[in-house]
Amino acid sequence: MGYVGRFAPSPTGPLHAGSVVAALGSWLDARAHGGRWLVRIEDVDTPRCPPGTDRVVLGQLSALGLLPDEPPIWQTQRTAHYEDALNRLVAAGQAFACACTRKQLMAAQGPRERHGELVYPGTCRPENGGLRGQAARAWRLRVPGGELHWQDRALGPQGQDVAREVGDFVLKRADGLWAYQLAVVVDDGAQGVSHVVRGADLADNTPRQILLQRALGLPQPQYLHLPLVLADDGQKLSKQNGAAAVDLQDPLAALQAAGRVLGLPALPAQALPEWLAQAARAWPLRPKDNPPL
Fold first, then answer.
1. Is 180 marked within a binding site?
2. What DSSP assignment string belongs to 174-237?
3. Would the annotation count 124 as a binding residue?
4. Which end of the chain is more exposed for a tag (fewer CB within 10 A), N or C?
Protein backbone atom coordinates (compact mmCIF):
# COMPACT_ATOMS: atom_id res chain seq x y z
CA MET A 1 0.00 0.00 0.00
CA GLY A 2 3.01 2.32 0.36
CA TYR A 3 3.68 5.15 2.72
CA VAL A 4 0.72 6.73 4.55
CA GLY A 5 1.45 9.40 7.16
CA ARG A 6 -0.79 11.65 9.21
CA PHE A 7 -0.98 14.71 11.40
CA ALA A 8 -3.52 14.26 14.18
CA PRO A 9 -4.04 17.45 16.21
CA SER A 10 -6.34 17.69 19.20
CA PRO A 11 -8.38 20.91 18.67
CA THR A 12 -8.02 22.17 22.23
CA GLY A 13 -6.60 25.42 20.85
CA PRO A 14 -4.95 26.87 17.73
CA LEU A 15 -1.67 25.46 16.44
CA HIS A 16 1.39 26.88 18.20
CA ALA A 17 5.07 26.75 17.24
CA GLY A 18 5.48 23.23 18.64
CA SER A 19 2.51 21.78 16.78
CA VAL A 20 3.71 23.42 13.54
CA VAL A 21 6.97 21.48 13.96
CA ALA A 22 4.99 18.23 14.25
CA ALA A 23 2.77 19.11 11.28
CA LEU A 24 5.69 20.10 9.06
CA GLY A 25 7.80 17.10 10.07
CA SER A 26 5.03 14.63 9.29
CA TRP A 27 4.25 16.38 5.98
CA LEU A 28 7.90 16.44 4.92
CA ASP A 29 8.45 12.79 5.78
CA ALA A 30 5.42 11.80 3.70
CA ARG A 31 6.46 13.94 0.75
CA ALA A 32 10.08 12.81 0.93
CA HIS A 33 8.91 9.18 0.74
CA GLY A 34 6.53 9.85 -2.15
CA GLY A 35 3.63 8.96 0.15
CA ARG A 36 0.22 10.27 1.19
CA TRP A 37 -0.36 12.67 4.08
CA LEU A 38 -3.62 12.69 6.04
CA VAL A 39 -5.11 14.97 8.69
CA ARG A 40 -7.22 13.57 11.52
CA ILE A 41 -8.96 15.79 14.06
CA GLU A 42 -8.57 14.03 17.41
CA ASP A 43 -11.54 15.59 19.18
CA VAL A 44 -12.52 12.50 21.17
CA ASP A 45 -11.96 14.41 24.44
CA THR A 46 -14.91 16.69 23.70
CA PRO A 47 -14.90 18.77 26.93
CA ARG A 48 -11.42 20.06 26.07
CA CYS A 49 -12.25 20.98 22.46
CA PRO A 50 -13.91 24.40 22.12
CA PRO A 51 -16.45 24.56 19.25
CA GLY A 52 -14.91 25.83 16.03
CA THR A 53 -11.30 25.23 17.02
CA ASP A 54 -11.05 22.35 14.55
CA ARG A 55 -11.80 24.76 11.71
CA VAL A 56 -9.22 27.20 13.06
CA VAL A 57 -6.58 24.44 12.98
CA LEU A 58 -7.51 23.39 9.45
CA GLY A 59 -7.33 27.03 8.35
CA GLN A 60 -3.86 27.36 9.87
CA LEU A 61 -2.65 24.25 8.04
CA SER A 62 -4.04 25.62 4.78
CA ALA A 63 -2.28 28.96 5.34
CA LEU A 64 0.98 27.06 5.81
CA GLY A 65 0.47 25.15 2.56
CA LEU A 66 0.14 21.81 4.42
CA LEU A 67 -2.84 20.33 2.59
CA PRO A 68 -3.91 16.71 3.17
CA ASP A 69 -4.30 14.28 0.30
CA GLU A 70 -7.76 13.22 1.51
CA PRO A 71 -10.53 15.07 3.37
CA PRO A 72 -9.88 15.17 7.14
CA ILE A 73 -11.76 12.86 9.49
CA TRP A 74 -13.06 13.62 12.99
CA GLN A 75 -12.87 11.12 15.84
CA THR A 76 -16.25 12.19 17.18
CA GLN A 77 -17.75 10.70 14.00
CA ARG A 78 -16.11 7.31 14.59
CA THR A 79 -17.40 6.19 17.98
CA ALA A 80 -19.04 3.07 16.52
CA HIS A 81 -15.60 1.85 15.41
CA TYR A 82 -14.18 2.26 18.92
CA GLU A 83 -17.16 0.43 20.40
CA ASP A 84 -16.62 -2.44 17.98
CA ALA A 85 -12.92 -2.64 18.87
CA LEU A 86 -13.69 -2.70 22.61
CA ASN A 87 -16.32 -5.41 22.14
CA ARG A 88 -13.78 -7.53 20.27
CA LEU A 89 -11.22 -7.12 23.03
CA VAL A 90 -13.76 -8.00 25.73
CA ALA A 91 -14.94 -11.06 23.81
CA ALA A 92 -11.32 -12.22 23.49
CA GLY A 93 -10.69 -11.76 27.23
CA GLN A 94 -8.20 -8.96 26.53
CA ALA A 95 -10.21 -6.14 28.15
CA PHE A 96 -12.18 -5.96 31.40
CA ALA A 97 -14.42 -3.60 33.35
CA CYS A 98 -12.96 -1.60 36.22
CA ALA A 99 -14.75 0.01 39.19
CA CYS A 100 -11.74 1.82 40.68
CA THR A 101 -11.74 5.56 41.26
CA ARG A 102 -8.63 7.67 40.83
CA LYS A 103 -8.61 8.30 44.58
CA GLN A 104 -8.57 4.56 45.26
CA LEU A 105 -5.74 4.00 42.80
CA MET A 106 -3.67 6.82 44.28
CA ALA A 107 -4.17 5.37 47.77
CA ALA A 108 -3.16 1.90 46.54
CA GLN A 109 0.03 3.16 44.89
CA GLY A 110 1.21 5.52 47.60
CA PRO A 111 3.81 8.27 46.98
CA ARG A 112 4.98 8.78 43.40
CA GLU A 113 7.09 11.24 41.49
CA ARG A 114 5.47 14.48 40.35
CA HIS A 115 3.78 13.82 37.00
CA GLY A 116 4.68 10.15 37.42
CA GLU A 117 2.48 7.44 35.95
CA LEU A 118 -0.36 6.19 38.14
CA VAL A 119 0.27 2.46 37.78
CA TYR A 120 -2.84 0.28 37.80
CA PRO A 121 -2.41 -2.62 40.28
CA GLY A 122 -4.83 -5.06 38.63
CA THR A 123 -7.54 -4.62 41.26
CA CYS A 124 -10.53 -5.44 39.02
CA ARG A 125 -8.97 -8.14 36.89
CA PRO A 126 -11.33 -11.13 36.81
CA GLU A 127 -8.74 -13.37 38.49
CA ASN A 128 -8.51 -10.83 41.33
CA GLY A 129 -12.25 -10.82 42.01
CA GLY A 130 -13.51 -8.56 39.24
CA LEU A 131 -15.97 -5.79 40.09
CA ARG A 132 -17.05 -7.38 43.41
CA GLY A 133 -20.61 -6.18 42.89
CA GLN A 134 -19.59 -2.59 42.10
CA ALA A 135 -20.65 -0.72 38.97
CA ALA A 136 -18.22 -0.61 36.07
CA ARG A 137 -16.63 2.81 35.66
CA ALA A 138 -14.07 2.22 32.92
CA TRP A 139 -12.70 -0.47 30.64
CA ARG A 140 -9.04 -1.48 30.60
CA LEU A 141 -6.71 -3.51 28.40
CA ARG A 142 -5.20 -6.57 30.05
CA VAL A 143 -1.46 -5.84 29.70
CA PRO A 144 0.97 -8.77 29.46
CA GLY A 145 4.15 -8.73 31.51
CA GLY A 146 7.63 -8.39 30.09
CA GLU A 147 9.69 -5.79 28.25
CA LEU A 148 8.34 -4.56 24.94
CA HIS A 149 10.96 -3.40 22.41
CA TRP A 150 10.61 -1.26 19.31
CA GLN A 151 12.77 0.89 17.05
CA ASP A 152 12.28 4.64 16.71
CA ARG A 153 13.69 6.24 13.56
CA ALA A 154 15.13 9.15 15.57
CA LEU A 155 15.48 7.88 19.13
CA GLY A 156 16.84 4.44 18.24
CA PRO A 157 16.08 1.24 20.20
CA GLN A 158 13.37 1.70 22.82
CA GLY A 159 11.89 -0.53 25.49
CA GLN A 160 9.33 -0.50 28.27
CA ASP A 161 7.72 -2.98 30.63
CA VAL A 162 4.18 -1.64 30.29
CA ALA A 163 2.74 -3.93 32.97
CA ARG A 164 5.24 -2.66 35.54
CA GLU A 165 5.39 1.01 34.51
CA VAL A 166 1.76 1.62 33.48
CA GLY A 167 -0.37 -1.41 34.22
CA ASP A 168 -3.69 -2.26 32.56
CA PHE A 169 -4.53 1.03 30.88
CA VAL A 170 -7.89 2.64 30.15
CA LEU A 171 -9.70 2.14 26.83
CA LYS A 172 -12.99 3.79 27.77
CA ARG A 173 -13.07 6.35 30.55
CA ALA A 174 -15.35 6.60 33.56
CA ASP A 175 -17.05 9.64 31.96
CA GLY A 176 -17.98 7.53 28.93
CA LEU A 177 -15.40 9.10 26.60
CA TRP A 178 -13.03 6.99 24.55
CA ALA A 179 -9.42 7.00 25.63
CA TYR A 180 -6.78 8.40 23.28
CA GLN A 181 -4.86 5.11 23.11
CA LEU A 182 -7.77 3.12 21.69
CA ALA A 183 -9.00 5.82 19.31
CA VAL A 184 -5.60 6.50 17.78
CA VAL A 185 -4.83 2.82 17.22
CA VAL A 186 -8.23 2.07 15.66
CA ASP A 187 -7.98 5.10 13.38
CA ASP A 188 -4.38 4.47 12.32
CA GLY A 189 -5.37 0.94 11.40
CA ALA A 190 -8.49 2.03 9.50
CA GLN A 191 -6.56 4.68 7.56
CA GLY A 192 -3.69 2.36 6.73
CA VAL A 193 -1.14 4.59 8.45
CA SER A 194 2.31 3.10 7.87
CA HIS A 195 4.44 5.84 9.45
CA VAL A 196 3.69 7.82 12.61
CA VAL A 197 5.66 11.07 12.86
CA ARG A 198 4.94 13.16 15.97
CA GLY A 199 6.52 15.01 18.90
CA ALA A 200 8.89 13.29 21.29
CA ASP A 201 6.46 13.94 24.17
CA LEU A 202 4.26 11.19 22.73
CA ALA A 203 7.03 8.58 22.57
CA ASP A 204 5.99 6.93 25.83
CA ASN A 205 2.54 6.24 24.34
CA THR A 206 4.11 4.01 21.70
CA PRO A 207 4.40 0.75 23.69
CA ARG A 208 0.76 0.96 24.78
CA GLN A 209 -0.29 1.50 21.19
CA ILE A 210 1.83 -1.41 19.99
CA LEU A 211 0.15 -3.68 22.55
CA LEU A 212 -3.26 -2.56 21.30
CA GLN A 213 -2.25 -3.09 17.68
CA ARG A 214 -1.23 -6.64 18.52
CA ALA A 215 -4.43 -7.29 20.48
CA LEU A 216 -6.57 -6.03 17.58
CA GLY A 217 -4.51 -7.76 14.88
CA LEU A 218 -3.42 -4.45 13.29
CA PRO A 219 -0.06 -3.77 11.61
CA GLN A 220 2.55 -1.81 13.54
CA PRO A 221 3.58 1.47 11.90
CA GLN A 222 7.12 2.79 11.89
CA TYR A 223 7.64 5.54 14.47
CA LEU A 224 9.57 8.79 14.32
CA HIS A 225 9.50 11.19 17.26
CA LEU A 226 10.53 14.77 16.54
CA PRO A 227 12.32 17.34 18.73
CA LEU A 228 10.14 19.52 20.93
CA VAL A 229 9.87 23.30 21.06
CA LEU A 230 10.52 24.42 24.63
CA ALA A 231 9.10 27.40 26.48
CA ASP A 232 11.31 29.89 28.33
CA ASP A 233 11.06 27.82 31.52
CA GLY A 234 12.39 24.73 29.73
CA GLN A 235 9.02 22.95 29.68
CA LYS A 236 7.44 21.65 26.50
CA LEU A 237 5.58 24.38 24.64
CA SER A 238 1.91 23.45 24.88
CA LYS A 239 -1.61 24.81 25.01
CA GLN A 240 -1.75 23.83 28.69
CA ASN A 241 1.06 26.25 29.58
CA GLY A 242 -0.32 29.10 27.52
CA ALA A 243 1.53 28.70 24.23
CA ALA A 244 0.49 31.44 21.82
CA ALA A 245 -1.06 30.61 18.47
CA VAL A 246 1.50 30.59 15.68
CA ASP A 247 1.79 33.97 13.93
CA LEU A 248 0.63 33.45 10.35
CA GLN A 249 1.08 36.98 9.09
CA ASP A 250 4.19 35.51 7.45
CA PRO A 251 3.55 31.76 6.90
CA LEU A 252 6.96 31.27 5.30
CA ALA A 253 8.69 32.62 8.41
CA ALA A 254 6.65 30.23 10.57
CA LEU A 255 7.71 27.29 8.41
CA GLN A 256 11.35 28.38 8.41
CA ALA A 257 11.32 28.53 12.22
CA ALA A 258 9.86 25.01 12.35
CA GLY A 259 12.41 23.85 9.79
CA ARG A 260 15.28 25.03 12.00
CA VAL A 261 13.95 22.93 14.88
CA LEU A 262 13.82 19.95 12.51
CA GLY A 263 17.43 20.44 11.44
CA LEU A 264 16.76 21.73 7.93
CA PRO A 265 19.39 23.98 6.35
CA ALA A 266 18.62 27.55 5.30
CA LEU A 267 16.76 27.39 1.98
CA PRO A 268 16.79 30.15 -0.66
CA ALA A 269 13.11 29.96 -1.62
CA GLN A 270 11.05 33.13 -1.22
CA ALA A 271 7.61 31.59 -1.89
CA LEU A 272 5.74 29.05 0.20
CA PRO A 273 5.31 26.23 -2.38
CA GLU A 274 8.94 26.56 -3.49
CA TRP A 275 10.19 26.43 0.11
CA LEU A 276 8.14 23.32 0.87
CA ALA A 277 9.47 21.57 -2.25
CA GLN A 278 13.05 22.44 -1.29
CA ALA A 279 12.44 21.33 2.30
CA ALA A 280 11.16 17.93 1.14
CA ARG A 281 14.34 17.46 -0.90
CA ALA A 282 16.46 18.52 2.08
CA TRP A 283 14.62 16.32 4.60
CA PRO A 284 17.39 14.44 6.46
CA LEU A 285 15.45 11.15 6.53
CA ARG A 286 14.58 11.17 2.83
CA PRO A 287 15.32 7.86 1.07
CA LYS A 288 18.23 8.48 -1.25
CA ASP A 289 16.66 6.55 -4.12
CA ASN A 290 13.15 8.00 -3.82
CA PRO A 291 12.63 11.57 -5.06
CA PRO A 292 9.88 13.47 -3.20
CA LEU A 293 6.57 14.30 -4.82
1. yes
2. TTSPBPHHHHHHHHHHHHT--EEEEEGGGGGGHHHHHHHHHHHTPPPPEEEEEPPPB-TTSSBP
3. yes
4. N
Q: Chain-wide mean pLDDT for the chain?
A: 92
**Domain limits of the chain?**
4-71+229-282, 79-172
pLDDT for residue 253:
96
164 known member of a binding site: no
120 is in an annotated binding site: yes
32 is in an annotated binding site: no
What is the assigned CATH class of domain 4-71+229-282? alpha beta
Alpha helices in the chain (DSSP H): 17-32, 53-63, 79-91, 102-109, 162-165, 180-191, 206-216, 251-261, 272-282
The hierarchical CATH code for the domain 79-172 is 3.90.800.10
Mean pLDDT per 10-residue interval, the chain, length 293 residues: 94 95 98 97 97 98 98 98 98 97 84 68 94 94 97 96 96 97 98 97 97 98 93 58 83 96 94 96 79 48
239 appears as a binding residue in the annotation: yes
Task: Specify the pLDDT at position 189.
Answer: 98
Instruction: Please tell me whether 103 is known to bind a ligand.
Output: no
Specify the DSSP class assigned to residue 128.
G
Question: Residue 82 annotated as binding?
Answer: no
Binding site annotation covers 8?
yes
The answer to whether domain 4-71+229-282 and domain 79-172 are alike in fold is no
> Coil, strand, or helix at residue 79?
helix
Asked whether residue 140 is marked as a ligand-binding residue, the answer is no
Quote the pLDDT of residue 244: 86
Cα angle at 267 between 261 and 268, to 5 degrees? 150
